[in-house]
Amino acid sequence: MSRTTVIQNVRILDPSRNVDEKGAIVVENGRIAAAGAGALNQGAPEGAEVVDGRGLIAAPGLVDARVFVGEPGGEHRETIESAARAAAAGGVTSFIMMPDTDPVIDDVALVEFVLKTARDKAVVNIHPAAALTKGLAGEEMTEFGLLKEAGAVAFTNGRHPVHNAQVLRRAMTYARTFGGVIALETRDKHLGAGGVMNEGLLASWLGLSGTPREAELIPLERDLRIAGLTTAAYHAAQISVPESADAIEIARARGANVTCGISINHLTLNENDIGEYRTFFKLSPPLRGEDDRKAMVDALAKGTIDIIVSSHDPQDVDTKRLPFADAADGAIGLETMLAAALRLHHSGEVPLMRLVDALSTRPAKIFGLDAGTLAPGAAADIVLIDPDEPWLATRDTFVSRSKNTAFEDARFTGRAVSTYVAGKRVHSLG
Amino acid sequence: MDLFPHRHLLGIKGLTEQDITLLLDRADEAVKISRQREKKTSTLRGLTQINLFFEASTRTQSSFELAGKRLGADVMNMSVGNSSVKKGETLIDTAMTLNAMHPDVLVVRHSSAGAAALLAQKVSCAVVNAGDGQHEHPTQALLDALTIRRARGKLSRIIVAICGDVLHSRVARSNILLLNAMGARVRVVAPPTLLPSGIAEMGAEVYHSMAEGLKDADVVMMLRLQRERMSGAFVPSVREYFHYYGLDAEKLKAAKADALVMHPGPMNRGVEIASEIADGPQSVIEQQVEMGVAVRMAVMETLLLSQNREPRA
Question: What percent of chain A has pLDDT over 70?
C-alpha cells in the first residue's frame, strides 16, 4: 500500500513516548512516518487522504491480551473473522486469542491454522496464545519452542488453572529458555469449588454458592513463588481482588518478573449488577464488591495492575439462558472495553495516559508485539477516539456473533470513531 | 383496588407486611374449607394449574395439588427427572411447551436458585415458587407463619430460633425474610460451617449453642440436615451433630415452657430432632402440614383473582 494518510489537528496520546500534544500523524506504506506537533502544517503529499482529527484523540490501537474466539469448534459463538470485526469496532487493533478452542491450540498445526485464517479473513492482528499444557489438562507441557517459532506469543491454560505445582514449575523453567510469557488465571480447585459468584451477603441471599477471594489469592501466591524460583516471566491474566494486586507488588519487590491484568468488567461493574440472576454477569473470576472494584481502579491508576483486558468470551443462549448456577461464565467485551474504560477517565479516577498505556502500550510490551506505539517506523495501528460522544450500547449495535454483553443498554461517553490497522481504515462510524 | 400487587409468588422478598397479612387472613378462611365435609369450591373453576417439579417432593407437590383441587381448578402434575437431560435445558424447553397449553398458574420446584424467576420471564401465566435451590420457598414460610399466628395470635415481637443447616436452606431464607417483615425476632442456631457468609447482616442473631439460642424462644424451628452433609463434610458425624444440635427434651427446656416445635419435613429422627420431641405435646409439625394446604389455596386464589381483575396481555 503506497497511499499516504494524514490525520490533522488531532490530540496525540502516545504512552510509549509519553507524548500528549496537538499534532498530526502521517502514515506511509502502513507505517507511521511522523506523529506529533512537529508534523503539523507540513501539508500533505499529492493524493494523500487527509483526515480532520479536530476534537479527537489519536492513540495507538488497543491491544487486548485475553480474547476467546469460537473458531475452531464453536463457530456459532464467534469466528476469527467476526471477532476481528468486533475488535475493530472497539478500537482494538491486535488481540491475543486464547487456546480454549475445540480442538485446543496446543499444536503447531493449530497455531498455523489460526494465523492463516487471521491473515485471510481478519481485519485486525490476531496473535495466538498456545496452551501451556496438552489439551489444557494441566499435566504435560506443550512444545514451547516449536509453538513459539510458529507464532504463539504466550503460553496460557486459558480458563483452566494449573493445579499441579510441579507441572507449573517445570513448564516455567523450560519456558525461560524456549517459551515466552506464561499467563495464567488462578482458582483453587477445592476452595472455589461450586462457587458461582462472589462469596458474601448477596450470594447468601440469592442462595448461590460463593467463591471466596482466597480461592484466587492462594494459588496466585504459589505461582508468584514459582515465578521467583524459576525467574520465568509470569503474567497473572485476571485478578479481581486488591489482595492479589498486593501479592504482585510484593513479588516484584522480591525481584520476580511478574505482571498482571484485570478485565474491564472488574473495573467497572460489581456483584450487585447480577441483580436477579442475570447470567451475563456470571464471570470467572466473579464480579466482586464495590470496595474491591474501587481498590482495583486505584491499583490500576498506580500501575500495580499493568493492563486491562476485555476477557471477550462469546456465549450463546444455550449456555447462558439457564439458571444462574448452570450458566457458563463469560461476557463479550471487545466492543465496549474502550468505552467502559473511558468511564474511569471521566470520573477522574485514572488519567487518560495511564488508561491508553494499560490498554495498548503495556500489553504490547509484555507480550512482545509490534504495537502499542505511534513512534515513527511503527505499524500504523491507530484508534481515533471521540472522548465525549454519548452513545447507548443497544443489542443491535454489537457486531460480535454473540450478544452476551454485560453492558446491554449501557450509556457510555466516548468511543472509537475510526480504527486503522497498518494504515488501513477497518472501522469508522457513520 | 389492587390488594395484592404481585403477578407471581417467587419469594418472600418484595412482600410487605400488608401482603403477608392478606395471604395469612385468606389462609385462615381456607382452613375452614378444608375442615368442612364439602371441601371443594368453585373459586378457580375452569382454570388450569400445572405442578412442574424438577426435584421430587411428594409432600409439597400433593399439598399444591390438593390446594388447587379444593379451589376447583384442573390440576396436572409434571415430574421431570433430573436424570438424562441437562437441567437448565429442560427448564426453559418444558416451560415453553407447557406455556403453549395455556395454564393459569405454574407451580415450580427446581434445584437451581433463580429457576422460578427465570421461568416467570418466559411464560405468560402466574408462577408460584415451590422451592428453587437454596434461594427461597415462600409458601413454606407462609405456612410456618400461619401456624405460629394461630397458636400465638401474633407474629410481632415473638422470638423464633431457626436451628440447623441454615446454609443450604431455602426455608430458612424465606422465614428470615418473612419473620423480619412481620416484626418477629429471629435467631439462627447452628455450627459455623452450616451458616451462610454474612448471616449476621441478614436479620438474624447468630448463636452456636442451643442452650443460648433457645433461651426464652417462643418457637423452635428445626431444619433438615441432608445425609450427605452429615459425615465429615460440614459436621464430623451424626453423633456429634445430635449431641450439640439435635433437639431433645433437655435442650428444649431452654425455650419457653409452651414453645412451639416446628419442622418443615421430612424429618431425620435422631439427627436433628428426637422422636419424643417430634411426637411430643409442643410439636406442631402436623398442623404445619394442614396449614400448608390452606396457605397454598390462599396464594393461588390471590394471584389468580388479582390477575383476573385486568385483561391478560
Answer: 99
Grid cell locating A193: 469449588
Domain around A389 = 4-58+380-428
B256 is an active site residue: no
Facing residue for A326 by CB, picked from B88, B173, B197:
B88
In the predicted structure, residue B311 carries a pLDDT above the cut 70: no
Same domain, A303 and A235: yes
CA–centroid distance for A30 within its chain: 24
Is A276 close to B88, i.e. CB distance below 8 A?
no
Instruction: Tell me which of B39, B59, B157, B253 is the catalytic residue.
Output: B59
Is residue A49 located within the same domain as residue A119? no
pTM of the shown model: 0.93
Which of residues 244 through 303 in chain B touch A, CB cutoff 8 A? none
Positions in chain A short of pLDDT 70: 1-2, 430
CB distance B201–A207 less than 8 Å?
A: no
Catalytic, B110? Answer no
Are residues A344 and A360 both part of a single domain?
A: yes
B198 at the A interface (CB within 8 A)?
Answer: yes
Same domain, yes or no, for A386 and A407?
yes
Known active-site residue B227: no
Per-residue pLDDT tens over the stretch A385-415: 999 999 999 999 999 999 999 999 999 999 9
Assess: ipTM above 0.90.
Answer: yes
Contact by Cβ (8 Å): A58, A75:
no
Please return the burial class of B67, using the count of CB atoms within 10 Å of its CB with bins 0-12, 13-18 and 19+. Answer: buried
The reply to whether A331 falls in a domain is: yes
| Residue A40 shares a structural domain with residue A73 | no
Looking at the structure, do residues A86 and A181 belong to the same domain, yes or no? yes
